[in-house]
Write a structure and sequence with these properties.
Pfam families: NDK. The chain is an alpha+beta fold. It is built from twelve helices and eight strands. The chain has a four-stranded antiparallel beta sheet with strand order 6-7-5-8, with helices on both faces. It has a two-stranded parallel ribbon with strand order 1-3.
């Protein structure tokens, strides 16, 4: 090649889709600025298999070592080739990223709270659907939420709206809720995909099979709370199951919080 180029190994949640969207926007912006070849071109690996082959080609074991950060190192070489090295969870111990890729998806935990009035009539079907989606239930308890605990589960935009906050908290504290700790690979995102949007009407328009479309009746009484991110899942497990869980496949909570 006639000019130097850069190779990056990137790691993140839903890396292929996210990087593809970012590069699409970057390419469109580049095309508006110039019709020539003066600006850099970008390529990315499209599958995990291609990513693995390219990572072996351009990097050594020593180059791709994760630490306590959420990303792997960047490395300058001679070709622009954005290769998203994907993994569903990061580990706080130093580890070969090649070994991580070969090990496959890591088992994660997440929390599902079935809101008052829903679990008492829909629990058998919900448990069956969880089983069909390969979730394991590793913790379960019913409880009555206090106002502070209910408010902590709500999105920031709801917490900043006094009327919406009061409506949500009134509903969440109106009866007994059932909290489940669930476990499977990619548990957090998979649960969010099953629940659908917070508003049941929007969920119904997207897909009638989404859980909030089936069980929810309004944006307040939408049937479920699910941990919206990995960090929130770690927080929720610690909040609702401080006594521990009946399974030890995942990292201990103290290790996940590092």
């Amino acid at each position: 090649m006639s000019s130097p180029v850069l190779v990056c190994a990137l790691r993140g949640i839903d890396a292929f889709r996210a990087l593809g969207a970012a590069l699409k926007g970057w390419t469109q912006g580049r095309d508006r600025l110039s019709t020539g070849d003066s600006l850099p071109q970008a390529l990315m690996a499209l599958t995990p298999e291609v990513t693995f082959r390219q990572a072996i080609l351009f990097f050594t074991e020593a180059d791709l070592v994760t630490g306590k950060a959420h990303f792997c190192c960047l490395y300058c070489l001679t070709q622009i080739c954005f290769s998203p090295v994907v993994g569903e969870s990061w580990r706080c111990r130093a580890e070969s990223l090649f070994s991580f890729l070969q090990a496959g998806a890591q088992v994660l935990r997440t929390v599902l709270l079935i809101k008052p009035g829903v679990w008492s009539r829909g629990l058998p079907r919900i448990l069956r659907d969880l089983h069909l989606q390969n979730f394991s239930v590793v913790g379960m308890k019913h409880l009555e939420l206090g106002a502070a605990a209910a408010a902590a589960l709500l999105p920031c935009e709801v917490q900043q709206d006094p009327a919406a906050l009061e409506a949500h908290c009134t509903y969440l504290t109106s009866g007994t809720a059932l909290v489940l700790c669930l476990q499977r690979p990619n548990a957090v995102k998979k649960l969010m995909d099953l629940l659908g949007p917070e508003d049941p009407q929007l969920a119904q328009a997207l897909d009638p099979c989404l859980w909030r479309a089936q069980y929810g009746t309004s944006a307040v009484q939408n049937g479920f709370y699910g941990s919206r991110s990995y960090a929130m899942a770690v927080r929720d497990v610690k909040l609702f199951f401080p006594e521990g869980l009946c399974c030890a496949q995942c990292q201990p909570v103290q290790e996940q919080e590092v």
